[in-house]
Amino acid sequence: MTDSIAVLGAGKIGEALLSGLLTGGRRVEELMFTERHPERAAELTARYGVAAVDVATAAKEAAVLIVAVKPQDIEPLLDELAPHATADTLVVSLCAGLPTSLYERSLDDGVPVVRVMPNTPMVVGEAMSAISPGRHATNDHLAVVEELLSVVGMVVRVPESQQDAVTALSGSGPAYFFYLVEAMIDAGILLGLPRAVSEKLIIQSAVGAATMLAKTGEHPVILREAVTSPAGTTIMAIRELEKHGVRAALLDAIEAARDRSQELGKAHDPS
Ligand SMILES: NC(=O)C1=CN([C@@H]2O[C@H](COP(=O)(O)OP(=O)(O)OC[C@H]3O[C@@H](n4cnc5c(N)ncnc54)[C@H](O)[C@@H]3O)[C@@H](O)[C@H]2O)C=CC1
Ligand SMILES: O=C(O)[C@@H]1CCC=N1
After folding, report:
1. The CATH number, out of the four listed (3.20.20.190, 3.30.2420.10, 3.30.43.10, 3.40.50.720), of the domain defined by the range 5-163
2. What percent of the chain has pLDDT over 90?
3. What residue owns the CA closest to ligand 2's atom 3?
4. Does residue 70 line the site of ligand 1, with CB under 6 A?
5. pLDDT tens across 128-161, in order?
6. CA-CA distance, 211 to 198, in Å (whole number)?
7. Ligand nearest to the CA of 54
8. By the 8 A CB rule, do 136 and 104 touch?
9. How far apart are CA 148 and CA 1, in angstroms?
């Protein structure tokens, strides 16, 4: 099993990872984090018992450093990290858009970097994480990251050139499903159902549909056709979705997210 792990920047995704790792069997003593805001650090230590440390301590004590700050905050973090990271430190970036080359330019030659796009369902052990090696990351480094992240969900390897698309699909993906669920609950309210009933109906339908997708291996079209009776209720709803361009809206939305991921990378590229 991997040695100690430090999360650098314990916001939403950093906390989701810490909590997922603890639920998945990691011991508190194997984990640590850095956090710019002391109140936030105190809150997390109180909640999980994990120690807040400084970057120098994290780099000295942890075998894996997981960067989870906003892309916009990466430069000061790299300035802090650069004097301490060596070829024995594995740096794992969770930051949307940021290429491994950005880290390699700032850190000593030979520091291995793995770029990861996870998602928040890691908090319930159902993350989808895609990982890509930087220039100095070997198969062994990828295996370490796979082992670490498999505790909180599924892991796939992708070429780094696909990471902006992955970010738009599975990194942001949970938000699209939450948005859809929110809108469907509102529809229940529109039809006069009590909110609690509407929430229960839609959330269990989402769980059921997701479980069917995951467990039957059937294509979504086949599963949808099985719900859609001739001249029935479902086809009336599908016609409205098509009329309102929901499919095209999704294609545009995910393309916009991919473009934003590319922009975030370019904003930190001096060339
Ligand atoms: N929220 C999500 O669903 C996902 C986020 N990501 C990526 O994870 C990263 C973090 O995102 P969130 O957790 O949503 O942001 P966040 O703003 O909730 O968390 C970032 C944390 O880093 C801390 N921080 C900033 N600079 C620091 C420094 N120099 N030293 C120590 N702590 C520092 C901030 O105080 C904050 O608590 C981003 O790069 C994002 O692209 C990736 C996948 C999913
Ligand atoms: O919205 C964002 O930029 C981050 C990256 C993927 C999910 N949340």
Report:
1. 3.40.50.720
2. 96
3. 96
4. yes
5. 999 999 999 999 999 999 999 999 999 999 999 9
6. 20
7. 1
8. yes
9. 8
Q: Is the CB of residue 146 below 6 angstroms from any atom belonging to ligand 1?
A: no
pLDDT in tens, 111-123: 999 999 999 999 9
What spacing in Å lies between the alpha carbon of 35 and ligand 1's midpoint?
10
Choose the residue to mutate in 12, 100, 124, 163 for probing ligand 1, maximizing ligand atoms within 8 Å of C-beta.
Answer: 12
Could you tell me the distance, in angstroms and rounded to a whole number, from the CA of residue 73 to the centre of ligand 1?
A: 8
For residue 101, the model assigns a pLDDT of 96
* Share of residues in the chain with pLDDT > 70 (%): 99
Cite the residue boundaries of each domain of the chain with CATH code 3.40.50.720.
5-163
Query: Ligand 2: which residue has its CA nearest to atom 7?
Result: 172
- Tell me the per-residue pLDDT of 21-80, one tens digit each, with 9 for 90 and over: 999 999 999 999 999 999 999 999 999 999 999 999 999 999 999 999 999 999 999 999
pLDDT band at 181 (very low <50, low <70, confident <90, very high): very high
CATH topology classification for 173-262: ProC C-terminal domain-like fold (1.10.3730)
Rg (C-alpha) for the chain, rounded Å, is 21
Whether the pLDDT of residue 201 is over 90: the answer is yes
